[in-house]
Amino acid sequence: MVSQLKTKLVIYTVLTGLKEPPGNPLARLPAGAQSDLEIDFVCFTDHPELISPVWTVRVLPPSFVTGEKASRLPKALPHRFFPDHDYSLYIDNIVEFKRLPQSQDLQGQAPYLFKMFKHAGRPNLLKEAEAIVGLGFDDVESITRQLDHYSQYLELEHISPLSTCTVMLRQHHHPQVQRLGELWWEQILSFSKRDQMSFDFVRLMTRTQVSYLEGSTKDNDLVFDQANLGGSRILANFDDSRYAHVNGLVGASRQALRQHYRALPPTFEASLFYARRNSLLDYHAAMNKSSLGHLVSPRRGLSHFLEKTLAPLAGADAAALALGLQARANAPLDWTEQEIVRAVQAMAPLLSGHRFTQAVFDRVGFDGTAHPLTRIQTMDPLGLLMLFNMGADQADKLSVLLQGLRLLEQGLVILFSDANTDSHWFTPLLQSMAPQPLRLALKSMHSLHDLSGPILPASVHCIEWRLDTAPERQT
Fold first, then answer.
1. Three-state DSSP class for residue 238
2. Per the confidence metrics, is the pTM higher than 0.70?
3. Are residues 378 and 341 in the same domain?
4. pLDDT tens-digit series, residues 204-215
5. Which of 75, 122, 156, 464 maximizes the CB count within 10 A of its CB?
């Protein structure tokens, strides 16, 4: 009797940069687990001394591409590396199998095999981008530049569903699968190292049919859910510079820093402490074409300061009011109406629970009574008030405009101006809006502007208020 040849499948992973020890995808398989496929296990690495009881280790070819991007080459282009296998299954190094792949996993309705999971929590590319920035996995400029490029071809909200590139089962010699891989690799080289930022754009542009596996990486019959954060695993947001500074290792190589970190007892707190920190407000400013951050002219450079200042207000159920005067004709440093509108749009995502009302008034017609804010007297309690291009000359008119507004127990006023102004003119007005004394804390911030010198001193003022609820003293 002639035995039937088994179909060959290669299961492979990539491990570069000494970020973690090699995983064991078979560690939790039930005893006696078998497959009707002929399976090979291959791990690509830039570390020739890597040893594994499971993986056949292959050293990546020499490249001037950074390690994090070089690791995506076999992931995107398995047809270049596995000429003798018809099917390949890429898995991240930390993935562990519940069962071994079987021949039935290679079946499908599409003319070629391309299977993976949908993302368990994020619906589209915009949510992925925000998560990457928030986690510090890549910098704001790289992510927003990539999104800006993609927006020329597709509506960003429509780059959906979001695919998870943790497990990818492919018939990698099929021309359509190869075409996607080549263009995907091109995007990884051109933009973010985070491959999920480019995969679905390429999938849609090439009209590649992906058959999504049942469930998600967190709940399925093939692989276990794997925690991606904490422990001794060096994440994509590891801040080498901070680690070197804190541990007296300035000047040490990147490899030496990572070896030093991995030799320490693994803790979740350490992974958080050494994580790179981005400004989400810088991201939202760039996405809304707002000058609050460092990427959109006139680049006022306020995102980091404002993000920290606004953080205590997040989640409050309150009204937010943004009022401005139109820029003066001969005052290039004033906030334009477009800048004001976009600044509010950029800050809004950081202030969940706040309901925004905004208006920009003509300087000549502004008298504090004839205004379009018909709901201003019946607004919810005010938690945030932002004033643009306003100063002491407008105090009396603002007093009329804001009369009757109720203040939240605690909140914030932000005064945006040009330079060398103060906030003292507004504190009496704010006190007059409260039914009882306020405790106030004032802080000022310099800003930047493309048309100014090095800084605009004292151009942003924040007044934090808190209702004084202490009981009256008995006399």
1. strand
2. yes
3. yes
4. 999 999 999 999
5. 75
| Residue 2: both structure tokens together | 């002639």
Give the sheet arrangement for strand 8-15, strand by strand.
56-59, 38-45, 8-15, 87-91, 163-170, 114-118, 211-212
Residues 135 and 81 in one domain: yes
CB-CB contact of 201 with 69 (8 Å): no
Give the DSSP per-residue string, 153-207: TS-GGGS-SPEEEEEEEE-TTSHHHHHHHHHHHHHHHHS-S-THHHHHHHHHHHT
Looking at the structure of the chain, the number of domains it has is: 3
| 410 closest CA partner among 386, 388, 441 | 441
Rounded distance between C-alpha atoms, residue 51 and residue 29, angstroms? 21
Checking phi first, is residue 428 left (phi over 0); if not, alpha (psi -120 to 50) or beta? alpha
Question: Do you find a cis peptide bond into 161, omega within 30 degrees of 0?
Answer: yes
Same domain, 301 and 271: no
Taking 60 as the threshold, does the pLDDT of residue 475 lie above it?
no
Residue 178's nearest CA partner among 88, 260, 97, 70 is: 88
Question: What are 138's two structure tokens?
Answer: 């890549």
Instruction: Locate 60 and state its tokens.
Output: 């990546």
Amino acid at 40: D
- Name the β-bridge partners of 15: 45
Determine the residue type at 206: T
The domain that holds 366 is classified in CATH as 3.40.50
Instruction: Give the DSSP H or E segment for 273.
Output: helix 268-273
| pLDDT > 70? residue 470 | no
β-strand partners of 12? 42, 90
Place of tokens 């009011």: 321
Tell me which residue of 79, 61, 78, 82 sits closest to 70, measured CA to CA.
61
Q: Give residue 49's domain range.
A: 8-212
Q: Which two tokens stand for residue 90?
A: 């890429």
